[in-house]
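Hey, resending since the last one bounced:
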Amino acid sequence: MSFTLAIVGRPNVGKSTLFNRLVGKRLALVDDQPGVTRDLREGEARLGPLRFTVIDTAGLEQATDDSLQGRMRRLTERAVDMADICLFMVDARTGVTPTDEVFADILRRRSAHVILAANKAEGNAGEAGVLDAYALGLGEPVRLSAEHGEGLDDLYTLLAPLAEELEAKTAAHLPETDVDVSDDAEETAERTKPLQVAVIGRPNAGKSTLINKILGEDRLLTGPEAGITRDAISLTTNWSGTEMRIWDTAGMRKKAKVQEKLEKLSVSDGLRAVKFAEVVVVLLDAAIPFEQQDLRIADLAEREGRAVVVAVNKWDVEDDRQNKLRDLKEAFERLLPQLRGAPLVTISAKTGRGIDRLHGAILRAYDVWNRRVTTAQLNRWLTEMLEAHPPPAPQGKRIKLRYMTQAKTRPPGFVVMCSHPDKMPESYNRYLVNGLRNDFDMPGTPIRLTLRSQSDKNPYRGRKKPGPSKLRKHLDGKRRK
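The C-alpha cells again:
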C-alpha cells in the first residue's frame, strides 16, 4: 500500500536531507542556512519493501500572521492534515527547544500517527538531546543521521505496522465490486505520460500564482516579496482534460546579481527543470516586458530546444490594452527573431483571465514541436527554394544542395547533404530555416538544420589502377585460353 509521510520540524533540523535520502535523489535543495525549504515538495520514496509518498515541508515557525513565515507555517500545517503519518524531527545536538514543545502539542491534536525522530545523532553525538526528546510525550525517539543514512532500519520498523494498519482501514472502506474487464478493454487502454511544462521568468513575475490558479488551490507559496520560490517544484494535474506535470521554478536574475550560494542553487534547479520540460512558458510582467533578462531567459529555452510559449502576466491592471498588445507583438518580433511565430498570450494569474488561451497555446506549441515532414515533401520544397534563391559561391566554389531529410523531432531537426558545408554562409541557413517555418507551419519552435558533406567523386576513383606489366600478363592469359 502507498501512504503519505510528511516530514516536519523546526528549520535546519535535516528534513530536506532525509527527504533526499528516502527518494534516492538530490531533489530538495540542502544548505547550512536555515529556512531553505519554503514550498511543499513531494517525492516517491522507498524504504525496504515500503513504497510511499514523502512530503518535505518548510521549517515550522511560531508566526501566525500574513508574513512570509506565517504563510509557510500554514502550508506546513496543510501538509500535516494531508499526510497519513507525520515524522517530527528534532535536532539531537541542539536538544529540545520551546518551539519543539509547541509543535509537538500541535501534532498531537492534528495528526493520528506521529513518529518522533532525533536527527544528527550519528555515533554518540547528541545523546543528551535524544534523552530530552522523551519529554515531548510522543514515544521513544528514533535515532537518525539523515546525512549518513543511519537509523533507517529503526524507522522502517516503526513505519511497517502503521502501513499495515492504514491498508486494513482502506480495504475495509472499499466497496465490493464485481467488474468483468474484457481483454479488448485492456488492450485499448493506453497509458500516456503527462505533458512536461516548465514556467520560468524573472522574480515576482507571478509564476507560483499562475500555477495555483491552474491547480485551483493554493498549493504553492505566494506573496508580494520577490524570490519566494527556491526549489523547482513539480506538480501533476489534469488541466482541462490534459494530464500535465507543471514545474514552478525560482526567479532568474542577472548572473552578476546572483551572489549567494543558495540563489545559485535555486537557479541551477530551475535550469534543470527546463531541460526536463517539453514546453516552456516564459512568463513576463506586463508593466516591464522584454527586459534584457527576459530575452536571455527566452533565448535559453530556445537553445535547449524546448517548445516555447510567451505569456504576459498582470494584464488585468493595464488600461490601454489594445495599444499595449500591439507594442508587445512588435517588440516580440524585433527582439526574439529566433522565436518568430511562437504563441504570445496575455493573462492574469490573479483573476484567471486568459488561462484557457494559455492551455490552447501550450498544446499547439507541443504539436508543432513534434511535427514530422516526409522526405519527398522536403526535397520538392528544397528544389523550389533553390530555384527561387540559389546558394552563393564563396571563393568561386559552387555549393550544391543535393537532398534533404528530417532526422528527428522534439525539436524538428533536418539534414541537408551538400558540397562544401563549411563554406555555407549563415544567412542562407536562416533563409532555409525561415522557409521551413513558413511553408510547413512550424511557427515559434526551435528548428535545427545540419549541413553534411557528400562527395560527388566517382566511387571507383582512388582505386589503384593495374600497371602496364599486370595488364600485359592479363591479356596474354586471355590469348592462351
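Confidence is low (pLDDT under 50) at residues 177-191.

Sorry for the duplicate.
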